Amino acid sequence: MNFPDRLFPDAWQWSAWLLAAAALAAAAATAPWRRLGDGVRLNVWLGTVVALALLWSMKAGVYPGLNLHLLGASAFVLMFGLRLGFLGLAMVLAAVTLNGDGGWQAYGLNLLVTAAFPALLAAGLLRLAERWLPRNYFVYVFANAFFGAALGVIAVGVLATLLLAGAGVYAFDFLSSQYLPYFLLLGFAEAWLTGGLVAIMVIYLPRWVGSFDDARYLYHE
The domain 10-217 is classified under which CATH number: 1.25.40.10, 1.10.3720.10, 1.10.10.10, 1.10.1760.20? Predict the structure, then answer.
């Protein structure tokens, strides 16, 4: 999912850079940095960045721009919120780009597709679940961590497919048969990984999951 340089037209890449820079500036200016004032939470945030950087480095793919890897975006947002989660994902992408998995010219586009979009989707699903679904531990895990993670990866695959087809990089028929279907399998893996980790953290390390409120999900009347 990390696009290399010169895969897309220059106008697309630089326009994406402008949008990405604006998103990063807005997130940095409004992020609740006080949440990281606790040394434990800061270490967890940085540790999550490192863990996801390693996870993103384990990718599969043959053609340029058609690689696949797990995201972890839903877990990051559930743990630290939209802004801190997005900024953390930006650091993850910077790390893998430094490692050669992607290009700096395409960094803005990669950031929008693999960080901003899934982070916004995860935050939106969380708000919908809080508004419309029962206040229950299992609902929280399955709706946000399991279903939300799967939907996030599949949605990123759809977006990447539309961008690649729209730019004429690959034919839509080729992408719809040789690329997009694999996101269904990847979404299943993402769902189990995120759902399992969040379920364990909520029980044993609840301080690590900022979106989980004991009063809301466990002790409500």
Answer: 1.10.1760.20
